[in-house]
Amino acid sequence: MLLAFHKPYGVLSQFTPEPGSHWHTLSEFGLPKGVYSLGRLDADSEGMLLLSDESGLNSNLLDPTHAHVREYWAQVERVPSAEALARLERGGITLGGYKSLPCRAQLLNPAPSLPPREPPIRYRKNVPDCWLSLELTEGKNRQVRRMTAAIGHPILRLFRVRIGQLALGALLPGTWRELDASERAAIFAPDKIRS
Fold first, then answer.
1. Which listed residue (42, 129, 180, 191) is catalytic?
2. Which of 34, 39, 41, 76 is deepest in the core (most CB within 10 A)?
3. How many domains are there within the chain?
4. Could you tell me the residue range of the domain that residue 180 belongs to?
5. How many Cα atoms sit within 13 Å of 62 on the Cβ side?
6. What is the spatial distance between Cα 70 and Cα 21, in angstroms, rounded to a whole number?
7. What is the pTM of this model?
8. How confident is the model at residue 190 (pLDDT cuts 50, 70, 90)?
9. For residue 38, what is the domain's CATH number?
10. pLDDT exceeding 90 applies to what percent of the chain?
């Protein structure tokens, strides 16, 4: 079985709590027994998380050589210049000894309409913000956050909206559903960074 889950802010991508952690876990959402997350989203990130009880899907989905694109919407401080976005697209941003692969980066205008986050992001009257769409084929630890910080635009809110060719759509925060054969094919179909 393959499930899509809309992971809310403040939820770990695992079923067991971490000692001393205040974050919630997947065990609170009535997911079927025996499933595990394919990849992860950090507790402070939101959006599409896939879960399955099938072995082998994890490496197929996460290995960058398979080029399964993941699209994120990132609310960042200030508005990046065209050159800053070009730096992301060229790749090669150093992230703790690792250089990022090229990605697709563009401003989202108008800003996307997303469910409110609890707690809401911090608001700073004198610091404008904007939304970016970032499409990556890799997923190192906190990579999107580290990439935008490297170009001088820290993330305020991070939301994964698509894996492969399957979008999160209208799935509400904290809810999940089993994917049908066509949706499953959309995830594992050959994909590339959209131009």
1. 42
2. 76
3. 1
4. 2-188
5. 15
6. 28
7. 0.91
8. low
9. 3.30.2350.10
10. 65
